[in-house]
């Protein structure tokens, strides 16, 4: 996904004089060609994350379209007040693109993990948040975001699904349950293939979205209305319950049950290993999701 | 319009008095008053008619706390209706204790939390450079206490190394930083590649001379000394 980001952004820099990339050393080696062609529009501020967001705000104030990229903990958490004030409070936009979200680089440990990034961004108004599950999806979402002045956070992942799914259309059903189905399972971005495997034996509707903000409340309400039960299992690759309030709002006109799966809030998981090891700890591997689904749907 | 009659430096205390209720003493305690006056009266190419002109000069008030002198100067130059000053900080007023660019024409940034203006200025200068706009200059006003914020040090180092000669920082120094700046503020900028001038923050001609100092290839800091806070 990161290679795709570099490729589509490099191509867009050649075509769109409004576009500017702001880096803090991370991935700068991948933009050397673009920087040689567009020295004023590929800006590496060094390891200065506060400045990288301030720079994006200033670029936007002059009418440019800044694309800001580094690891999620540095992009979202270290410079959070800059995101709040240098972008939102100034009423300007930027496209923030992170990698290394929840635990994509587990051998690096907690310092390079940011399972709370989407929850933190959710405390600010007016952001579109994309969590693509495939490089092709990421490319489509990026190309659309280049052409706007919106505030967009795109969360890249090292992992994803075997096939690209529709993006930019809200929540889309992937597999539809019967009229007597147990409910709806909503998978975000990289979680889809695991969710499909985990729910293979269950009569449920499995739906997908690569865009979690704004949340497609009407789309979820419609799918739940068509299901046998108003029960929703949400599976997100970041902090558990991040979208629970959106589901509650989407279904405020129905008696419903909901369960959120995601990275556990209970403890700091102090292990290295692989992403699969962390999936197991958080119950986000196919077996863990299947167990949670059977419990929740009372199978 | 009342703004046409209250347009002199001598009118500023009365205008500040509309906000603070004190015409005699408040003005003298405003550390930024003279800097702001000289900028808007003699330096900045900006007017109420050109607030959206992409080639206008930019003035970024990073030290957004205590903006009454800023509002008064904006009123003398017609950006703000004088009568608006009287109702400042009320729910229906565009004027708060910290200025908001969305609410006030001609205000380039919303500020108040310290340490944001210089980073925004770096981006603004880079954006103007990328668009080939060589005319606009970017002026940023910071306080010496505000320089404690690490975000400023990120911006000072990068602006110096990137040779952002479109930027002029005015550091109003009333020695309010808790641990101070050994060797003076100007030295901290110079070591990062900036041009520097140090002047009295009350001397209009000295301020004007400093603000208009040529500084090709490097950003400029003007340290404006005013009386010690308190």
From TrEMBL, chain B:
**Documented EC number(s):** 2.2.1.1
Q: Which cofactor does it need?
A: thiamine diphosphate
* Ranges where the Transketolase N-terminal domain occurs: 25-212
Q: Report a single Gene Ontology molecular function.
A: transketolase activity
The UniProt record lists the keyword Transferase = yes
Q: Which Pfam families match?
A: Transketolase_N
Cite the InterPro entries for this sequence. Answer: THDP-binding (IPR029061), Transketolase_N (IPR005474)
EC class? transferase
What keywords appear on the UniProt entry?
Thiamine pyrophosphate, Transferase
Q: Which domain of life is it from?
A: Bacteria
Task: Return the similarity comment.
Answer: Belongs to the transketolase family.
UniProt cross-references to PANTHER family, sorted A to Z: TRANSKETOLASE N-TERMINAL SECTION-RELATED
Name it: Transketolase
Supply the source organism for this entry: Nocardiopsis mwathae
């Amino acid at each position: 996904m990161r290679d795709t980001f570099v490729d589509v952004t490099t191509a867009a820099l050649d075509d769109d004089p409004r576009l500017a990339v702001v880096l803090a050393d991370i991935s700068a080696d991948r933009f050397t060609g673009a920087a040689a062609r567009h020295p004023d529009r590929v800006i590496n501020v060094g390891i200065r994350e506060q400045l990288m967001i301030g720079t994006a705000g200033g670029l936007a104030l002059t009418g440019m379209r800044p694309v800001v990229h580094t690891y999620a903990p540095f992009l979202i958490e270290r410079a959070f007040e800059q995101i709040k004030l240098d972008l939102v409070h100034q009423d300007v936009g930027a496209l923030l693109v992170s990698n290394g979200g929840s635990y994509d680089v587990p051998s690096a440990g907690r310092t390079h993990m940011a399972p709370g990034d989407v929850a933190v961004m959710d405390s600010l108004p007016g952001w579109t948040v994309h969590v693509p599950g495939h490089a092709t999806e990421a490319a489509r979402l990026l190309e659309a975001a280049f052409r706007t002045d919106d505030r967009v956070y795109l969360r890249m992942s090292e992992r994803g699904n075997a096939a690209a799914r529709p993006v930019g259309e809200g929540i889309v059903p992937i597999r539809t349950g019967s009229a007597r189905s147990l409910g709806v399972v909503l998978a975000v971005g990289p979680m889809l293939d695991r969710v499909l495997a985990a729910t293979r034996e269950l009569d449920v509707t499995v739906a997908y979205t690569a865009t979690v903000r704004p949340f497609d409340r009407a789309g979820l309400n419609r799918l739940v209305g068509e299901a046998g039960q108003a029960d929703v299992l949400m599976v997100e690759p970041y902090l558990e319950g991040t979208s629970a309030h959106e589901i509650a709002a989407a279904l405020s006109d129905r008696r419903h049950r909901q369960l959120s799966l995601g990275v556990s809030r209970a403890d700091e998981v102090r292990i290295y290993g692989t992403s699969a090891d962390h999936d197991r700890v958080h119950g986000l591997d196919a077996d863990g999701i299947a167990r949670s689904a059977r419990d929740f749907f009372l199978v | 319009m009342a703004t046409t009659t209250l347009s002199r430096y001598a009118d500023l205390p009365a205008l500040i008095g509309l906000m603070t209720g004190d015409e005699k003493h408040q003005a003298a305690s405003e550390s930024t008053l003279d800097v702001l006056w000289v900028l808007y009266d003699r330096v900045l190419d900006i007017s109420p008619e050109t607030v959206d002109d992409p080639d206008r000069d930019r003035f970024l008030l990073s030290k957004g706390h205590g903006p009454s002198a800023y509002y008064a100067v904006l009123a003398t130059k017609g950006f703000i209706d004088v009568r608006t000053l009287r109702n400042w900080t009320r729910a229906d007023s565009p004027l708060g204790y910290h200025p908001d660019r969305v609410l006030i024409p001609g205000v380039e940034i919303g500020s108040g939390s310290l340490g944001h203006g210089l980073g925004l200025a770096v981006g603004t200068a880079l954006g103007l450079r990328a668009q080939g706009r060589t005319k606009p200059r970017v002026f940023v006003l910071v306080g010496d206490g505000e320089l404690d914020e690490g975000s400023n040090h990120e911006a000072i180092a990068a602006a110096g190394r990137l040779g952002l000669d479109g930027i002029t920082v005015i550091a109003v120094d009333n020695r309010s930083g808790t641990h101070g700046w050994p060797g003076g503020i100007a030295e901290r900028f110079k070591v990062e590649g900036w041009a520097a001038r140090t002047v009295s923050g009350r001397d209009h001609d000295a301020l004007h001379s400093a603000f208009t100092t040529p500084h090709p290839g490097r950003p400029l800091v003007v340290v404006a000394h005013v009386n010690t806070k308190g």
